[in-house]
Amino acid sequence: MKIIITGAGAIGTYLARLLARNQEELTVIDTDEELLAQIGSDYDLLTLHGSPASVKTLKEAGAADADLFIAVTPDENENINSCILAHALHARKTVAQVNNAEYMERDVQQFYKDLGVDELIYPELLAARDINNGLKMSWVRQRWDVHDGALVMLGIKLRESCEILNQPLKDLCGPQDPYHVVAIKRGDETIIPGGNDELKCFDLAYFMTTRRYIPYIRKIVGKEHYADVKDVMFMGGGATAARAVLTMPEYMNAKMFEIDARRCEELNQILDDNTLVINGDARDIALLNEEGIKNTQAFVALTGNAEANILACLTAKRLGVRKTVAMVENIDYVSMAESLDIGTIINKKAIAASRIYQLMLDADVMNVTFLMSANADVAEFIPKEKAVVTRKAVKDLGLPQGITIGGLVRRGEGQLVSGNTQIQAGDTVVVFCHNANMKKLEKLFN
């Protein structure tokens, strides 16, 4: 597959990292020679110095033969224009990053699709969805729903109160049991577990289950004493925070701390009357106490400063808040934040890259999420008639190392997968993929 990326910044670099694993024919365009030199030395790809708004540059990059053209420069107008040009040059599919919620309206998306922009990506909206999914369950680090919750993946940090520690998984996750453990993150290692593996205290374990058994999972991992989230404090009033508040469940109440007085005035116009906007620094412990942090179940730090977000979450935890969410845009800080037990980590470029990564897959793929914590992908595949995965039971498929099938949805009903499961065409199959080539996996479903 021939792929062109315009923009060698944060999202472009992260996307190149994901795509380079699949050994695609990859070209990155940028006007910044230093960024190109860096990305060219780190990954196996071609770089081209030039403007993505230049027809000459796009022709030189081979846009006429591109299967996927991705525009992720900081300038949304440049992204849209370059996609329109690439489409005119006969690129098969185009994707543009935008920075305004207006572009997400259906009629606006269709307008640009008619012009040649097949997909618009708004990272702030994608991040807000992830934040709200995390807030719905205070005891879960990450939640991932398939078919509106028919099947659910839960990433849970295990503590001493977990009652299934130090027992072989073959004794816990049999064909009749209501959950499977599809992956374990232990320190810096990601484990795709077998029957003899055991869960240990402080593991980050990924459970696959169905919606009806979520309370059961909560019980066995010892998280019943965690209070459900009703009151949330936000640090930072940027676009992601505003979008998260506007789309959060109605039963939640929000307080937002913003240092900039002018931005506070804007937020008061944007947000509804149920959100209290406070002109102040959420790292001020006296202010937090005054605003009732001891009666708050979640603290979300979304400023542009990763260090400030991490420190604020640590402070909130020390003050008794169990659920903390930190935006960490610097990938190098993610491991550090996890080692400090921050809670849920939000990285907009990883979220946006996951969405774009989905678009390069030829099989029917409903969703792809890259789990930074586990350095792994989770994908929903829909096998076609006579696909390889439909010909044998799962145990006889000879799945590549690092891949496990966690569950499937058939006719709207979620079910877990065992070795004897026979996958059918049209099922939605959830696959966990660690250090493996997603494109090779894709062939099994075509």
Could you characterize the architecture of this molecule?
Residues 1-121 form the RCK N-terminal domain. Keywords: Ion transport, NAD, Potassium, Potassium transport, Transport. One of its GO terms (cellular component) is plasma membrane. By secondary structure, the protein is an alpha/beta fold. The protein has helices at residues 10-20, 33-42, 55-61, 76-88, 106-115, 123-135, 214-220, 239-247, 261-270, 285-290, 306-318, 331-339, 348-359, 438-442; strands spanning 2-6, 25-30, 46-49, 68-71, 94-97, 119-121, 142-146, 151-157, 179-186, 189-191, 204-209, 231-235, 253-258, 275-279, 298-301, 323-327, 344-346, 364-371, 376-382, 403-410, 413-416, 428-434. The longest helix is centred in the first third of the chain and has 13 residues, at 76-88. The protein is globular and about 60 Å long. It has four domains: 2-121, 3-Layer(aba) Sandwich (Rossmann fold); 132-221, Alpha-Beta Plaits (2-Layer Sandwich), CATH 3.30.70; 228-321, 3-Layer(aba) Sandwich (Rossmann fold), CATH 3.40.50; 361-445, Regulator of K+ conductance, C-terminal domain (Alpha-Beta Plaits), CATH 3.30.70. Helix 1 (10-20) crosses helix 13, helix 6 crosses helix 8 and helix 6 packs across helix 13. A hairpin with a 2-residue loop joins strand 20 and strand 21 (413-416). The strands form four sheets. The chain has a six-stranded parallel beta sheet, sandwiched between helices. A six-stranded parallel beta sheet has the order 14-13-12-15-16-17, sandwiched between helices. Strands 7-8-11-9-10 form a five-stranded antiparallel beta sheet. Helix content is 30%, strand content 26%.
